[in-house]
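It is worth pausing here to work through a concrete case rather than discussing structure prediction in the abstract. The textbook approach is simple: state the sequence, then state the predicted structure, then interpret. We follow exactly that order.
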Amino acid sequence: MRIYIQTDIEGVAGYVHYYSFSDSIWNYHHVQRMNRLLTAEVNAAALAAKDAGATEVLVNDNHGAAYNILFEELDPICRIIHGRPGRGPEWTPCLDSSIDAAVAIGMHARAGVAGAVCNHSCWHLQDGRGCGYQLSEVAMFGLLCAERGIPLVAISGDQFICEEIREWIPDIRVAQVKESLGLQFANSLHPDRSRELIYQTVRDGVVGKDSVSMPALAGPFSLNVSDRDPSNKILESDLRGESLSALVIDVCNATGARYGMPEDIDDRSWRYPDSVYSPQKV
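Step two, the predicted structure:
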């Protein structure tokens, strides 16, 4: 049994501030602390999947630089998907028919949700019936799972994202590891408690994966995206297509990604982590 773990960081217990471009020692240690908290929550999910019968766990390091998780601290059952952000084959690499169930750790609310901590991004989707939706990243992930016949069985995050995902997948298990109190303010569980909750939630979800009913939307679809302000769509015109998976790639590439495109022949200007966390020096 193969389990796929989609990850972000804003929904991790203890995370209440976006990364800074500061070169300060404080910011360096802050980034390391948050990465350790994320890693431990992902590992709790991986161990739960393992105890529920998984033989392999694929972890998609999907936040920001796509190089956040301390891979060597995960259980050896894990394989990790990481690299330069926006340069892989798609937003959710290796999410295919070989996956038996999916889990999402560290999820955050969509842009425009009042009182949610570190919320951003909003997918603007219209289906073939003309119904319009505003979706968080994990709700879009759930629709991609559904299109590929994969149940999304468990997520972790704050109260807002737990509520939203249950609207789409009523049978999903949720681990609310913190209560959002504002844009950069939250009431978090202790890390040990959050990991215990994630472990039990994911284990129950994987064991009960066959009872999870996934949403079914029919195309053709229209899609756009916004970041902090949901009223400000990034693309001038919505993109249209029959496949939601293909359309997500098209929208991402139209906003600066290079999913599925040839890599630059010579791109030695890229340096991690400076290219992500530090302002470029002239």
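Step three, interpretation. Residues 25-51 form the longest helix (27 residues). The first strand starts at residue 2 and ends at 7.
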